[in-house]
Design goal:
Length: about 425
């Protein structure tokens, strides 16, 4: 196997072409260049390291297949396998968390942390995002929204050459002013410490070395991971691992287990159904659940504080009724919204045993609705050639007192005449 390319050997090759190194053997040139290389800084070594890396990739490309973007096929496949393994591990961990609460008969009190970030700009390769706003919410089905931590962020500057993209992104989403005029916390290290302390206080584990787990939407997973990496780079906190999990998969697993606990059929529940419920957020335009800045600028939809609150309301809306938990305004639903159902009292519970909750409508209306038997319109089948099935397709009778034809030469066309003959080839009698 040929020796691996490195920046030092690239420097040696260039040095042997100079007047001082011409005529020396390779071992002699290596010995002379060792001291020179050690005194060079990272900026001086950069071109040689880059050239060595390009040469290594070119040699590997000659031996291996490459994609249309110049990446090695083996590298891309390895990254895909790693992503699948991480996704599988994440799903197993989510199921383990939910099943643990179910095994302890305390699933309604199991606590989860929802987190969301807004960002200014991002790198194209490293997956690092410059944060603009952060919010986290501690949630349980029984208590609803327990606590919320939120903060606007002023990173001081954005990445070089990203000003235009950052402005376009801000104008179309969160509408926050760009650095250096950004709002909020300016000390990234202090902010990261505060976030870690909040997340640590929300965890139920007794082991302080356990990783911190937050849940966010599938779309925001790379954003949350990249923003945490940005904040961690300016902090002195060590051995703090923050795992970012998919909240939509949590919603699916939690809904199934809640229905099983309530002895309800969950055969119609699948990931596509729960994803549609989660994405079609009917709390999206509610006021009074965002930070003051986004309330004033009518950008509640993109507010991180509003996002985590709406997620808590969605979970509550689709699970509190199954467990007969009375929703509390501000905890399980927006402060100004009325609940859609009420829990049955002890007096009525003896009369109604089919469900643990009923509609807020009167019992008489509810009884009338239960008598309704829906019909499946998709089950209708008919033959288009039968006039009885479609009486309007040629089977209708002429209207009475219809005016007679103007002349015998212009009489009505019979049913047996050819309707598709061109006008130029028809006679008056046709």
């Amino acid at each position: 196997m040929p020796p691996k390319k490195n920046g030092f050997m690239a420097f040696v090759q260039d040095w042997r072409n100079t007047a001082e190194g011409r005529g020396l053997t390779l071992p002699q040139a290596v010995a002379r260049c060792g001291g020179i290389w050690s005194n060079m800084n990272a900026q001086q070594r950069g071109p040689y390291n880059s050239r060595a890396k390009d040469a290594e990739i070119a040699e590997r490309g000659a031996r291996e297949r490459m994609t249309s973007t110049g990446q090695l096929v083996s590298t891309v496949e390895s990254q895909q396998r790693e992503a699948v393994q991480q996704s599988t591990q994440m799903k197993c961990n989510i199921e383990r968390i939910v099943m643990k609460g179910k095994a302890q008969y305390d699933l309604e009190n199991s606590k989860f942390v929802f987190a969301a970030f807004n960002y200014f700009d991002k790198t194209k390769k490293d997956g690092i995002y410059t944060p603009a706003e952060f919010a986290a919410c501690l949630f349980s089905i029984k208590s609803g929204k327990i606590s919320v931590y939120s903060s606007l962020i002023n990173p001081g500057q954005i990445m070089f050459g990203q000003s235009n993209d950052a402005k376009l992104h801000a104008d179309s989403t969160h509408y926050l002013p760009l650095p250096p005029k950004a709002l909020g916390e300016t000390d990234m290290g202090k902010l990261y410490i505060n976030i870690v302390q909040y997340l640590r206080g929300c965890q139920v584990s007794d082991n302080p070395n356990d990783p911190l787990i937050v849940f966010t939407s599938t779309e925001l997973m790379p954003v949350v991971k990249g923003c945490f990496r940005y904040l961690a780079s300016d902090s002195d906190i060590e051995d703090t691992e923050i795992l970012v999990y998919d909240i939509q998969y949590l919603f699916y697993i939690l809904k199934k287990e809640v229905m099983e606990i309530a002895d309800l059929k969950s055969t119609g529940i699948n990931k596509s159904v729960t994803d549609a419920v989660f994405i079609n957020d009917h709390y999206e335009y509610n006021s009074g659940i965002s930070c003051q800045y986004h309330e004033d600028n009518d950008r509640c939809r993109y507010c991180a504080h509003s996002m985590v609150s709406r997620w808590a309301f969605i979970f509550s809306d689709y699970m509190c009724g199954d467990l007969a938990i009375k929703p509390i305004p501000g905890k399980h639903l927006p402060p100004k919204e009325e609940r859609k159902f009420q829990v049955i009292s002890d007096q009525r519970e003896a009369d109604i045993t089919s469900s643990s909750f009923v509609s807020c409508e009167s019992p008489q209306k509810l009884e009338d609705k239960n008598k309704y038997s829906p019909t499946d319109s998709t089950a209708f089948a008919a033959c288009i050639n039968k006039e009885d099935d479609f009486p309007t397709l040629g089977g209708s009778k002429p209207k009475p007192n219809q005016r007679p034809p103007l002349s015998n030469n212009f009489r009505a066309t019979s049913q047996k005449s050819d309707w598709n003959i061109p006008t130029t080839r028809r006679s008056a009698k046709d």
